[in-house]
Amino acid sequence: METLILTNDENGINKAGEIIRNGGLVAFPTETVYGLGANSLSSDAASKIYAAKGRPSDNPLIVHVCCKEDIYKIAADIPKAAETVIDMFMPAPLTVILKKKDIIPDTVTAGLESVAVRFPADETAQKLIRAAGVPVAAPSANLSGKPSPTKSKHVIADMNGRIDAIIDGGDCEVGVESTIIDFTGDVPVILRPGGVTKEDLEKQGIEVHIDKSILNSLSKSEKPKCPGMKYKHYAPDADVTVVEGEKTAVRKKIKELIGNTDKITGVLTMNGADYDNAVILSAGGTNKEYAKNLFSALREFDELGVEIVFAEFCSDDGYGLAVKNRLYKAAGGKVIHV
Ligand code: TXA
Ligand code: MG
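Above: inputs. Below: predicted complex with threonylcarbamoyladenylate.
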């Protein structure tokens, strides 16, 4: 199929909305990562998403809305804590898991009784959902297993020829996917860390727990609550190892590791370091910049033919937990603490 590349002006967005309304697939920018959207009220449309991505059918999709009222049309029995979070934070890089209403087909929720709902802050995303006239089911617009796309060229690389259209909306601001909070249990639980942090929530007096699977610490017999978390994720073709600790020690260790391999080596560094015999990409100086640059850098290492990547990781603050979670997944658990 031919994939239309649309601009994010009124014409482009209206065309994209029409495609979604008619059951097609459109990739669009959000403030987190690009999404691959379809009409969430149609089982047939949603099933095309799984086919285009090569996504396992037991991994449910997030439903995107363009106003708070629409959350109440697709979710039932919304608890007080969720209402507070919706009122205080949305629109935001945040997804809430709530009990689903029947209007959302099982294909979207992979048979779960709950539905993931997100009201994105990005203007193009909001306009698209409004133009579509229906809530939009959208996972990240990458091939299953690949790093999420944060630039339109990433979407084109993965999805050209597989979907109806792509809206080019430039680079995504946050760079990692939304924070997911599960409100279906007694206490709200963060299932995936993202742009809205535990600290942000606590500052507003909202108590949340953090799911164990976030840092790969689940034992084999435990099942993650967020089905997507069990799959290998965010992985470039290169083999990734995270080296974590105080910056000077991290750099000393990475230099030693580079010296021990004949493979083409890359280093993802925070605030430029001088490594010899390695392709160096900068993740920026803060965890916020790291989040924005991470997926793009992982894809770039592949383009440059890098075989092994060592990623510096130094601190957990702010976006640190979100960065660490994606790095650990990209590394398939290969983490060296120094
Ligand atoms: O920032 C984002 O959230 C992006 C943009 C496009 O909005 N979307 C995104 O979707 O990251 P995706 O499909 O790549 O990740 C959604 C995650 C998956 O791990 C999935 O298992 C989980 O959300 N999920 C969806 N519905 C769920 C539910 N009812 N209960 C628990 N986890 C759910
Ligand atoms: Mg994804």
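The radius of gyration is 20 Å.
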